[in-house]
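Problem: given the chain below (609 residues), write out its structure.
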Amino acid sequence: MSATDDAGLTTPPTSRRPRRKGRRAGWIVLTIFLILVGLLVCAGLLVRDALAARSSLTDAIDRLPAVEEALRAGDGAAAEAALAEVQPLTADARSHTDGPLWWVAGRLPVVGADVSAFSTAAWAVDEITQDVLPPLTGAAALVSEGGIQVQGGTVDLAPLTAAAPAVAEAADTMSTVVGRVGDIDVSSLQDVLAGPVSDLQDKVWTLDGLVATADRATTLLPAMLGADGPRTYLVMALNSAELRSPGGIPGSFAVIGTDAGRITLLDQASTQDVGPFPEGISPLAPADEELFGPNMAVYVQDTVYTPDFPTAAPLAAAMWEAAKGQAVDGVLTLDPVALSYLLEATGPIDVAGATIDAGNAVDILLSDAYAELEPGPETDAFFAAVAAQVLTTALSGDTDPQSLLGAVQRATSEHRALVWSSHEDEQSMLADTVVSGDISSSDRAAGTVGVFFNDATAGKMSYYLDSAVQHVSSECTASGRTDTFQVDLTSTAPADAATDLPWYVTGGGIAGTPPGNIRTDLFLYPPRGGRILNVTADGTLAGSEVVENQGRAVATLPRELAPGQSTSVTFQVATTDDGGSSGTRWIDLWSTPTVDQPGLATIEVPVCG
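Solution.
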């Protein structure tokens, strides 16, 4: 074989090698080109879908407040009509942010967090409009369209019972939405998306409270109104003329029974019929005894020294049972202002020759009665008769249910009406509601700042005490947030109160307070885990006693006012925020409701990381 042949056999023709490399390179270029085209197409599709979803989602979110406003107003028909306009928009937004492309894009570096957050937001809003809000609008329609009837002292429980399963399912769905939306890390998002997602989180948490309230109502009300068997409740009418933390001392008692929706007045009694119990009706927690003294367990009037109603109510229930031999399923309170709200719904009533209406009820109960009636059994009987007549009229069937519901909602929103159940499962559901009065253990109250008044005059002078409790400012510090609050008190008692007012009203000096003066003990509650930095009274740093109670370092400060005198107390609270690094949050400012001041305000404070 020749060398040439050998070379030809052993060495492939040089002209073929470049063609093979060229083909391979061409395929690589083509593949890269197709991948890029595919990515561009996918990106284009994602952008197209995102723009469409954003348009629908923005429109839907703009319309959602109309649904919420109608729900809060109890206008079911308006809520359903507004929701019908929103649902197609959220469904469109969800359909444009779902599928394999969005799944893949949500796992890409750099943009993945934003894509995933946007998709989750669209899913959440659609879940809310399709599965959460319809049962709520249906429940609202029951009330606004007369679905719930009160006739002859009987509440028709059928609509509530029928609505309960759907509302409970909506609450479960809402819980899932809250979990997924709450898991979005806003700090990892682009600024253009971080703000809207943060707003969505706030709206979701607010709506969650509304859904939870509806779930509790449809679950608890039938049971508490005797759907599963007869119930008995002790009603304490609080007297705001002698303040205690929830609004006043118990002035009289009524016992109501419920059975299959029928509500009846079973008994009435004076506070003089219950106790005292010199040995204490039951042991007090050491912190409660240190802060409020032992009389909480001795006198029924003093059970409500504490603002924590789940502590006070069982003491009152135990005293009633010991005095009357009757166990109760729960305890309720109403103050005179709450009764006036009910009178707005029922119209005037006539008791002992007096016409009492929404405009004069507070003055008659807290002032006129003491001027015209003998203190003790006569005034107690009058108070009991008024409370009984209001309840009987409200439940007669002649009062518009929606107006009655509005009066109850207004009273509870101002902490003028409280409810405790002796049934543990029901009490656990009540804990985070405004009617529970639970400042010690409820999650809702963890961040609450409290300002509570307890009269130390031993008279009925609190009628003449004007009060104002307000949030002044907030400041972020290196260790968290500092909030400043101000408490203003003024005595409107007449200058000659010491001689012109009855001894029963002035207290006659029996507690060491000169007749005509008003002595009030202030109890200042920081949030759980927070602390009070300082207390200033009328511009001077004031020393205050601090007692640890249920995770709060409670400061106490007495104030005494002569007729016409005022005092201003300022205190600062230091709090460590438990989440977030920016934005704002809402906390409750909870105080003793007085004749002229509601007991609850929700304030906006900065989140200080």
